[in-house]
């Protein structure tokens, strides 16, 4: 905007005069301000400032909206002059039920990506020479319709897949699932949830019925006790972290179990360092201590659960009955009380490194508390046995009776702004329609076939991770997901993308995935459209357009509608409110969620069965979402990571997030202020390990797994154990997923094992003392553990 007059910057003498006039006006304003300050009273100055401020605000667009970063669901007012986001300011507390006046650094300041110089504002198509060129929407959409339609005609819809976007609205994700099934004829539609919390969904669904948090933010703020694991809460979910710290200062207990001493552990009543990949072991150890010392909630277990006590065997039964019981036990479905007995204190310490006294202390703290919230993120789920980890945690919550009452429950903190709603509730999944309705059930499938006027196969499609392992997928439509960086074994992911017959990418930028595309379609950011997001405690909230779309970019729902029309399906939605009405009619848990109600009531938590239902603050107060209304506890045995350290690769590498970055950096890397704090990747190394390998803070270190290698600067810190390393996930330049394993997936949820990779390290000797400038001052100070 600098140097502009009437919207156009002039050249030559005219430009000089234009700039001089602008400077004179600015100087005049400063002079006038000085005169006013010297002659007017403070009260008069305040009145003048208020009048001028109100006049300037009249020229701005102000909308209350929901944050587009993590899934805490913070709400605030965004101010725009039509060209850019100028400010994010707290909304009224009643309009911001989750965060009140709080925001994190990203939600407050990080909007530079909207106007970034490399923002995609026109469609791109790849010519025969392999280069992209700008195209009209008509040409680009015709190319997409021909490319996807040709594969469908020749190989069937099963040869196509769609990766939906947890950044997009609920309404848009609903259409992504509908587009896959109705227009393309495939059930192979999935999203980033597969790479993070799908094991949470699977584990909680099997035990309690809903694959979501049972609590509200109020429960998190008021509980007597927390057990948090695999969550760098203060950096990944800062507003939740603040709420927890405030409650701990007021007397709540905080138990943190994690391989890395994350920031939230600094506030813990008890921090226990655990060996990566063995979470079910220490959780089962706590459960064993509780049941063996009669600390369990017997009334809750008897009245509201099954699967805790072993079933009594009848005195007289047939050989077939005995064989069936044996088969059930072999499948891991024996009673929890019996299954945890193998996890003695001595065995738990041998496997996980947690001393018996810490297991006992944690168990007694949870049992003594009136209420407890069990919180986790990807450190618990991104394993080849992540579903088992979640079921072990669900068992512990039930055994202690911490479900269905104020201040108690399970709370998987979700990472992307709409991964709960768009990534799960809206059904862009290979096995579920919206509302977690199983596509394999004839009556459910018939309902959607009638509504969408199409035939739908009862066979489940491919999960995201499976799409990259099956040669029969010939075409992909990837929306708002950077699979080239986020998939495990990214070298393999790149090869798959390169070999596709046709790839269309729909995004804000030409990211690493778009480099492989045949067509790239420019989408809108969340500040340029209207719809809804669903946050981590199931709260559906409004997202409002505060700016016009940049260039020729379009909202995802409008792109999908136009493309569906070109492929033979006429959609006639005039707004996202109309799309939500269709969601209401087909999705029982969203039956009463409408845009009008959300506006009036400030958000609604599902299940919300109809327009007279108030929504559900807390799940399972009366019964669980199971056939018999009881929690079905699932016995969990011993599992270990698919890959463990050995003499050749002696370290366990784990990955995660840092406060000043977000996911693969698509948004935060375009924010200059943010990049001052964490401008590059790094590896955390324990001081003992650093000394052994001759590594100092800032030295470049090569990390190698069986799948690849990266080179990053070192942070020397005792946040990690001597045999562990930590690397963030946010940087394309180093792409830590070159090191992770794409083959060993959770058998229930197909989640990859991001959190444990066997690696080796060496200092890179490039003839100097190491690239100390590769780390910012803030990062170096946080990461040097030399003391």
From TrEMBL:
<dbReference type="InterPro" id="IPR006963">
    <property type="entry name" value="Mopterin_OxRdtase_4Fe-4S_dom"/>
</dbReference>
<keyword id="KW-0411">Iron-sulfur</keyword>
<keyword id="KW-0479">Metal-binding</keyword>
<dbReference type="InterPro" id="IPR050123">
    <property type="entry name" value="Prok_molybdopt-oxidoreductase"/>
</dbReference>
<keyword id="KW-0004">4Fe-4S</keyword>
<dbReference type="InterPro" id="IPR006656">
    <property type="entry name" value="Mopterin_OxRdtase"/>
</dbReference>
<dbReference type="GO" id="GO:0003954">
    <property type="term" value="F:NADH dehydrogenase activity"/>
</dbReference>
<feature type="compositionally biased region" description="Basic and acidic residues">
    <location>
        <begin position="316"/>
        <end position="336"/>
    </location>
</feature>
<dbReference type="GO" id="GO:0043546">
    <property type="term" value="F:molybdopterin cofactor binding"/>
</dbReference>
<dbReference type="GO" id="GO:0051539">
    <property type="term" value="F:4 iron, 4 sulfur cluster binding"/>
</dbReference>
<dbReference type="Pfam" id="PF00384">
    <property type="entry name" value="Molybdopterin"/>
</dbReference>
<protein>
    <submittedName>
        <fullName>Formate dehydrogenase subunit alpha</fullName>
    </submittedName>
</protein>
<feature type="domain" description="4Fe-4S Mo/W bis-MGD-type">
    <location>
        <begin position="60"/>
        <end position="118"/>
    </location>
</feature>
<keyword id="KW-0408">Iron</keyword>
<dbReference type="InterPro" id="IPR006657">
    <property type="entry name" value="MoPterin_dinucl-bd_dom"/>
</dbReference>
<dbReference type="Pfam" id="PF04879">
    <property type="entry name" value="Molybdop_Fe4S4"/>
</dbReference>
<feature type="region of interest" description="Disordered">
    <location>
        <begin position="304"/>
        <end position="342"/>
    </location>
</feature>
<keyword id="KW-0500">Molybdenum</keyword>
<dbReference type="GO" id="GO:0016020">
    <property type="term" value="C:membrane"/>
</dbReference>
<dbReference type="Pfam" id="PF01568">
    <property type="entry name" value="Molydop_binding"/>
</dbReference>
<keyword id="KW-0560">Oxidoreductase</keyword>
<dbReference type="InterPro" id="IPR041924">
    <property type="entry name" value="Formate_Dh-H_N"/>
</dbReference>
<dbReference type="GO" id="GO:0046872">
    <property type="term" value="F:metal ion binding"/>
</dbReference>
<dbReference type="GO" id="GO:0022904">
    <property type="term" value="P:respiratory electron transport chain"/>
</dbReference>
<feature type="region of interest" description="Disordered">
    <location>
        <begin position="765"/>
        <end position="787"/>
    </location>
</feature>
<dbReference type="InterPro" id="IPR009010">
    <property type="entry name" value="Asp_de-COase-like_dom_sf"/>
</dbReference>
């Amino acid at each position: 905007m600098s140097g502009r007059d009437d919207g156009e910057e002039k050249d030559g003498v005219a430009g000089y005069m234009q700039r001089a006039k602008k400077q004179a006006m600015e100087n005049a304003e400063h002079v006038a301000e000085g005169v006013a300050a010297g002659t007017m009273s403070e009260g008069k100055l305040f009145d003048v400032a208020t009048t001028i401020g109100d006049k300037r605000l009249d020229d701005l667009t102000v909308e209350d909206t929901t944050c587009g970063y993590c899934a805490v669901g913070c709400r605030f007012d965004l101010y725009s002059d039509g060209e850019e986001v100028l400010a994010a300011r707290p909304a009224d507390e009643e309009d911001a039920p989750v965060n009140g006046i709080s925001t994190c650094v990203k939600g407050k300041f990080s909007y530079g990506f909207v106007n970034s110089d490399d923002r995609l504002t026109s469609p791109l198509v790849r010519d025969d020479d392999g280069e992209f060129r700008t195209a009209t929407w008509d040409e680009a959409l015709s190319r997409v319709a021909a490319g996807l339609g040709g594969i469908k005609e020749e190989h069937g819809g099963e040869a196509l897949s769609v990766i939906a976007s947890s950044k997009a609205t609920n309404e848009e994700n609903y259409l992504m699932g509908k587009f896959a099934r109705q227009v393309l004829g495939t059930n192979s539609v999935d999203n980033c949830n597969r790479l993070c919390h799908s094991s949470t969904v699977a584990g909680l669904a099997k035990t309690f019925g809903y694959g979501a948090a049972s609590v509200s933010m109020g429960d998190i703020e008021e509980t007597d006790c927390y057990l948090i694991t695999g969550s760098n809460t203060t950096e990944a979910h800062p507003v939740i972290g603040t709420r927890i710290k405030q409650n701990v200062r007021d007397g709540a207990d905080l138990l943190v179990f994690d391989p890395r001493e994350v920031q939230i552990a600094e506030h813990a009543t008890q921090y226990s360092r655990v060996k990566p990949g063995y979470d079910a072991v220490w959780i089962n150890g706590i459960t064993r201590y509780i049941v063996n010392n009669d600390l369990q909630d017997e009334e809750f277990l008897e009245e509201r659960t099954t699967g805790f006590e072993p079933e009594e065997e009848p005195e007289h039964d047939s050989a077939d009955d005995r064989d069936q019981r044996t088969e059930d036990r072999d499948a891991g479905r024996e009673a929890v009380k019996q299954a945890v007995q193998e996890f003695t204190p001595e065995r738990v310490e041998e496997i996980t490194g947690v001393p018996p006294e810490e297991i006992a202390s944690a168990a007694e703290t949870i049992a003594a508390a009136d209420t407890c919230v069990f919180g986790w993120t990807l450190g618990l789920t991104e394993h080849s046995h992540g579903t088992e980890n979640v079921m072990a945690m669900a068992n512990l919550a039930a055994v202690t009776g911490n479900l269905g009452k104020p201040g108690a429950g399970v709370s998987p903190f979700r990472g992307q702004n709409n991964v709960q709603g768009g990534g799960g509730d809206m059904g862009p999944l290979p096995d579920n329609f919206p509302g977690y309705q199983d596509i394999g059930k004839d009556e459910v499938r018939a309902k959607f076939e009638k509504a969408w006027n199409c035939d739908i196969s009862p066979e489940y499609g491919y999960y995201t991770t499976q799409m990259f392992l099956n040669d029969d997928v010939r075409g992909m439509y990837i929306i708002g997901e950077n699979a080239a960086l986020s998939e495990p074994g990214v070298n393999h992911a790149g090869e798959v993308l390169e070999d596709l017959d046709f790839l269309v990418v729909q995004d804000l930028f030409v990211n690493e995935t778009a480099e492989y595309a045949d067509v790239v379609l420019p989408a809108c950011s969340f500040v340029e459209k209207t719809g809804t997001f669903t946050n981590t405690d199931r709260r559906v909230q409004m997202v409002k357009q505060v700016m016009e779309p940049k260039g020729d970019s379009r909202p995802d729902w409008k792109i999908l509608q136009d493309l569906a029309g070109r492929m033979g399906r006429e959609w006639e939605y005039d707004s996202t409110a109309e799309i939500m009405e269709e969601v209401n009619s087909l999705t029982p848990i969203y039956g009463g969620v409408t845009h009008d109600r959300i506006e009036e009531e400030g958000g609604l938590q599902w299940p919300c069965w109809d327009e007279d239902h108030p929504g559900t603050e807390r799940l399972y107060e009366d019964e669980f979402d199971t056939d018999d209304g009881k929690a079905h506890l699932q016995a969990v045995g011993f599992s270990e990571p698919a890959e463990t350290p050995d003499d050749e690769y002696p370290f366990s590498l784990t990955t995660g997030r840092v406060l000043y970055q977000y996911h693969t950096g698509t948004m935060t890397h375009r924010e200059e202020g943010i990049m001052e704090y964490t401008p590059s990747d790094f590896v955390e190394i324990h001081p003992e390990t650093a000394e052994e390998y001759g590594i100092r803070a800032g030295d470049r270190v090569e990390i190698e797994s069986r799948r690849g290698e990266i080179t990053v600067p070192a942070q020397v810190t005792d946040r990690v154990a001597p045999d562990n390393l930590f690397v963030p996930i946010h940087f394309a330049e180093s792409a830590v997923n070159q090191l992770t394993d794409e083959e060993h997936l959770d058998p229930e949820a197909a989640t990859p094992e991001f959190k444990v990779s066997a690696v080796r390290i060496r200092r890179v000797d490039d003839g100097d003392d190491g690239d100390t400038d590769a780390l910012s001052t803030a990062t170096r100070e946080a990461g040097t553990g030399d003391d």
